[in-house]
Write a structure and sequence with these properties.
Blueprint lengths: L5 E3 L5 E5 L5 E12 L6 E4 L6 E8 L1 E9 H8 L3 E9 L12 E8 L6 E7 L3 H4 L3 H7 L17 E2 L5 E7 L20 E2 L5 E6 L5 E9 L4 H4 L5 H8 L4
Parallel strand pairs: 1-4
Antiparallel strand pairs: 2-3, 3-4, 3-14, 5-6, 6-13, 7-11, 7-12, 7-14, 8-10, 8-13, 9-11
């Protein structure tokens, strides 16, 4: 059951990002989010309010969990696969005695079995700059942070001013050849879309705003999708906003 109260402020843009002659990416601003009182009320600024809701999670005390229907958004923007999710501190938070927005939870319902995660932090928080993908994912695996006031807290990722946490998704190669095919796809694939695909997020604190960017592929053929190994790393160097 959806139990949230939304405060919808304004719209965000849909961005088309050219990647190559063979494949396009859609970089979609899913909106900006902020915890408000009472739990699980949130302030949302974006175009996808119909696909966003919240519920309350109990861990020592009640806190707000955000739920985003990625599968429905993919259908709406005509995307074929999910490449990455990026959580960004918007630069409007408190940074004196506080590290800005803190990612306490980043989880999914409906991912294909075997989906692999690669996480990377980019920003001013020295506690996270050299952390491995595994460590970053462990920090956001559960909604268990008791406070977002500590930049080195072990149970969340403190983004810092304009910092970002990017998580990219891949599926292992299909090494089993079907009769008459090309022998299987040898390159790593990004994740194909599913009917039920939900993104769950949590922020450790109140009144701290963060933005969510989803990067989708519009390539219709799995054979072509195979060229997008390490897409998150390449996209960051080559994409541009229109």
């Amino acid at each position: 059951m959806r139990t949230s109260t939304l405060i919808v402020l304004s719209a965000c843009a849909l961005l088309l990002v050219p990647y190559s002659a063979d494949a396009d990416f859609l970089e979609v601003d899913l909106g900006s989010f902020r915890n408000t009182y009472p739990v699980p009320t949130m302030e949302y600024e974006g175009d996808f309010a119909q696909h966003v809701w919240t519920d309350a999670v109990d861990y020592l005390y009640q806190r707000t969990r955000y739920n985003i229907d990625i599968g429905a958004i993919m259908q709406e923007v005509h995307a074929d696969s999910l490449v990455s999710i990026t959580i960004i501190d918007t630069g409007v938070n408190q940074y004196y005695g506080s590290p800005g927005a803190d990612v306490d939870l980043l989880d999914f319902t409906g991912l294909p079995q075997g989906t692999q995660f690669t996480a990377e932090y980019i920003g001013p928080n020295q506690h996270h700059q050299d952390e491995s993908s595994q460590t970053l994912m462990e920090r956001v695996a559960l909604m268990d942070s008791t406070s977002g006031s500590y930049p080195g807290g072990i149970n969340h990722v403190a983004l810092g001013y304009l910092g970002r946490l990017m998580v990219s998704f891949t599926l292992p190669p299909d090494d089993v050849a079907d009769p008459g095919d090309d022998g299987g796809i040898d390159s790593t694939m990004v994740m194909a879309s599913t009917d039920l695909l939900l993104l769950h997020l949590g922020e450790a604190g109140y009144s701290e705003q963060f933005q969510v960017i989803a990067t989708f592929s519009t390539v219709p053929s799995p054979g072509v999708m195979g060229i997008m190994a390490m897409a998150g790393t390449v996209l960051r160097r080559r994409s541009r906003r229109l």
